[in-house]
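Table S2 (text version). Query chain:
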Amino acid sequence: MTGQQRFGARVRELRVARGWSLRDLGERICFNRAYVGKVEQGDKFPDRKFAELAEIALQAGGSLTSAWDTEDAERRRVERTGRLLATSVSESMRLIGDNEELDLDELHRATQQLAVAYLANPPIPMLAEAVELRRLILQRLKTHHYRPRDLSDLYLDLARVQGALSYASLDLGDSRGAATHAEVAWLYADLADDNELRVWIRGTQSLIARFDSDYPRALGLVQDGFRYPTAGTGHLRLLAGLAQCRANLGDSPGATEALDQAQRERDTLATADSAPGLFTFSQAKQHYYAGSSMLWLEGGEHASRAAREASIAISLWEREPPETRSLDDEALAHVYQAIAHVRLGDLDSATVAVRPVLDLPPERRISWIHKRLRDLAERLTTASLRSAPEAVSLREEICDVFC
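Corresponding structure-token output:
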């Protein structure tokens, strides 16, 4: 449990012990019920005034302000680390540009740093970083400024930079550009004869096809990826992508079996990935994929599992360090959780789940978020929900920005 979760959980514990509703506490500290609920769920971190007022109202004996101070320090540390990761990529590339005689290891480190920084930064600056890094690698290749034994490594770095470009393009809504970048990534992974990267690229190409709702093509790309034996988490990602394809094609047993197989293989995984950040498939992301697969299958049991898997993913990401915490996927997990709650008829939980996403700054609203929030808004128009005040309010709020 993170500091933020401990703070919210402590507020809820003290409120429930007094027999107060969210509205009761809200009225005593001059915050509305919905805001208090988001704080208790860990979806909103308030300013210190909230903690001080709640401290007095709930007679918490200093525990609330202490929990708030702990979380505030933790959040500041994470923000500093994220900024440092992004800055490190820029500085490395400037250093390379200033001194073409630097060892090629520096280029490799810059590529690794880009893959890590991508998880915590908006796509536009990452796109710019990747374009510059690609220019530097291509310059080495075109001028033959490398040792023969380094050629394969340069191809790998170029393929990974192309992978980052593919992700950035897709996050910005350009699936055709993403497909082109992924095709080039495949070319250079093939030249390097690297199965690990081949598998990752096939998974990314399948992701692009799923973005375009072309599930037969997405399924074919995943199945082709299984032709390449590899260590690390690449096959887990393919299995999770297979589950998403099967679910969207209405194959409930196939989706469930793919997820179960991914978990079995996760339990026996012995080899780490050779590249970090964007090129790994964490346990949190596996739960996220499970939730986003179950979401498209009919039946309350699948919706319940989708909500549960999304919740586990969010909880895991909140405990992860910045170098493995994928903020965009974490935001999407909140959307999937909200859609699952809507399917289960729990509009209050849906509103609480999606609130952090609605509060995101514009630069963090990637194309996937727009796409899935429109799905959520559409679900709120079903006959059983369209007249409910909570559904109308949430749909209007979503559509004001995302529809």
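Notes on Table S2: The two ends are 34 Å apart (CA to CA). The CA atoms of residues 317 and 325 lie 5 Å apart.
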